[in-house]
Amino acid sequence: MATEISNKKLARIAGLLYLGVVVTGIFTLMYVPFKLFNADNASLIFQNITSSQTLLRLGIVGGLLCYTFFLFLPLVLYKLLKTVNENYAKLMVLLAVLSVPVFFLNVQNLFSILSLIISGQSKLGLSKDQIQLAVMQHLDQYDNGLRIVHIFSGLWLFPFGYLVFKSGFLPKLLGVLLMLGCFGYLINFIGNTLIHDYSKTGISSYISLPASFGEIGTCLWLLVIGVKDKKQT
User: Fold this and answer.
1) Which of 45, 156, 196, 211 is the least buried, fewest Cβ under 10 Å from its Cβ?
2) Would you state the torsion angle of the CA atoms of residues 161, 166, 170, 176, taken in this order, to the nearest 10 degrees?
3) For residue 162, how far is the Cα from the chain centroid?
4) Residue 142's Cα: distance from chain center in Å?
C-alpha cells in the first residue's frame, strides 16, 4: 500500500511538471514564434521583434522555465518507471537531460538579438541595416539550435514510450504514441536538414501529431488519473 501511495504521488508530481513543460513549451515554441517570426520578409520580422520586445523577453523566460521543468520531469519519471526496466529508465533520463544545456546555450541567440536592438546603434555603432542582418543571423542560429534540441526531444520519447507501454499501470496506447513521436521528431529533423522549405510543405505538422497526442495525453493521465493499481508479485 505504501508503494502504491508513493507511486500515485510521483504520478501527480510528474503530471504537474509535464503540464509546466507543455504550457511553457506551447507559449515559447509556438505562440511567440508565430507572433514574431512567422513572416517571409526579414524587414517585417525585424519590425515585429523591435515593436514587441516584451513578448520576446517573455518567450525567453518561458523557454528557460520550460527546460527547467524538463530537467526535473525525467528524474521523477525515473522513480515512477524504474521498476519496469531500469536500463530503459536510465536511458530515458540521459536523452532527456542532454537537451537542457543545449537549449540554455541556444537561447543566448535571443539575448543577443535583444542586445542588438537595444544598443546596436549606440554602443556598437551599427546601422539599422547591419542590425537587421545581425538579428536575422542570430535568429537563424536559434532555429538551427532548436533542431538539435529536437533530436533529443524525440530520442527520449522512445524509451519513455516503451516504459509506459510495459508499465501495466499506464495506457499502452500512450506508449505507442510516444514511441511513434520519437520517429516523428527525427523525420522532421532530417526533412528540415535535407529539404529546403520543408516546414512550408505542411508535412511536419502531421508527422508531429503522435508526439503531441502522446505527450499531452500522458501529462493529463498522470495529472488527473494517476496510475492504475498494479498487482504486486
Assistant:
1) 196
2) 40
3) 20
4) 14
Rounded to whole angstroms, how far apart are CA atoms 65 and 103?
Answer: 11
Mean pLDDT of the chain: 90
pLDDT tens digits, 123-164: 667 788 888 899 999 999 999 999 999 999 999 999 999 999
Query: Are the CB atoms for 64 and 104 separated by under 8 Å?
Result: yes
| Residue 167 C-beta-side C-alpha neighbours within 13 Å | 29
Q: Identify the residue whose cell numbers are 508530481.
A: 13
How wide is the angle at C-alpha 83 spanned by C-alphas 220 and 21, nearest 5°?
Answer: 30
User: What is the rounded average pLDDT of the residues 6-21?
Assistant: 92
pTM of the full predicted structure? 0.88
Helix-strand-coil split of the chain, %, nearest 5: 85, 0, 15
* Torsion angle in degrees (nearest 10) through CA of 120, 58, 48, 118: -10
Task: Give CA–CA dist 9/189, Å, rounded.
Answer: 36
